Prior knowledge:
By secondary structure, the chain is α+β, with helices and mostly antiparallel strands. It contains 12 helices and 18 strands. It is globular, with a radius of gyration of 21 Å. Bound molecules: adenosine-5'-diphosphate (ADP). Residues 120, 143, 145, 149-150, 156-157, 181, 183-184, 186, 189, 212, 215, 254, 265-266 line the site of adenosine-5'-diphosphate.
Amino acid sequence: xxxxxxxxxxxxxxxxxxxxxxxxxxxxxxxxxxxxxxxxxxxxxxxxxxxxxxxxxxxxxxxxxxxxxxxxxxxxxxxxxxxxxxxxxxxxxxxxxxxxxxxxxxxxxxxxxxxxxxxxxxxxxxxxxxxxxxxxxxxxxxxxxxxxxxxxxxxxxxxxxxxxxxxxxxxxxxxxxxxxxxxxxxxxxxxxxxxxxxxxxxxxxxxxxxxxxxxxxxxxxxxxxxxxxxxxxxxxxxxxxxxxxxxxxxxxxxxxxxxxxxxxxxxxxxxxxxxxxxxxxxxxxxxxxxxxxxxxxxxxxxxxxxxxxxxxxxxxxxxxxxxxxxxxxxxxxxxxxxxxxxxxxxxxxxxxxxxxxxxxxxxxxxxxxxxxxxxxxxxxx
Length: 381
Ligand code: ADP
């Protein structure tokens, strides 16, 4: 905060993509301006924050000193650096344990398994022969994953059918630590967003169902089409995980629903792409509740204001045309809310999203599809 302004809530956000941008907007709504630690001048959130600090290797520690509370829009931060910041008196929310669990998938699996949560069978693998050993009990396919959470746009998951496919992944990912995981026959992919204050008060948002094709999220629907028993089980598991990790802020818990029941897939210790619907469909958005939680302010209600919501990502197309060109047509789709992140268009880059609410999923989906198609100069039929 510039020294002439009283910093009643001096919050720093590390990272300046669209998650930080929407978190920044939520903080502004509450009347204060968080500081941002950005990597580039044209980062999505940096465009809204004239005093953003730009990345250079030693700048983060100094940035931390100027903020009473630090939160993060991604988990890819050196743990040693976080420890140094904490020793220097910075309040990290979420804390190091939660960030480590979100960043390092092996660590995350071990912690969750040791605490009795249901995770897929997993093992560290150093080469294709280890994958063969892993496959010995249940056979192929096997899922290979980078241990470190992938950056946006980077691939971090491969489903391999035999040793030679595994070998290909190892040779292409020679600089990455990999783990093997039992392939899950997924019926549905679900996300529970829990928001938790430092003292332990927490709330869950309505459960969301995501569709994934070729590793890309193609649709986010709320509420998930599951029964109330399963929904309350998923919320209980997600809340217990947040409590075990002493998470602060939003913790997104991704589940696979299989014929055997719920399996925890992964954790994200921040507002999540699957929670953008909360901006339109809930009294308090995931971004505002994240800000409230990390500043230890009372949480807002998280129930659904509408029977159904559908969110579609707006991805860059191969022709590189900026979807902002389709804004007039997209805004003419009444009932759909368009969010563009101010990013340069690149193929498959996440440039924005569209959310529509409706009386049912079909109605909301139709509106969202019409607006998304309009952004790309297409007509949805
Ligand atoms: P990312 O960090 O890239 O989101 P995830 O672990 O969530 O990685 O995996 C991405 C997608 O890959 C999942 O949403 C799911 O569709 C598929 N996937 C991941 N793990 C498994 C698994 N063990 N079995 C089957 N599919 C999986």
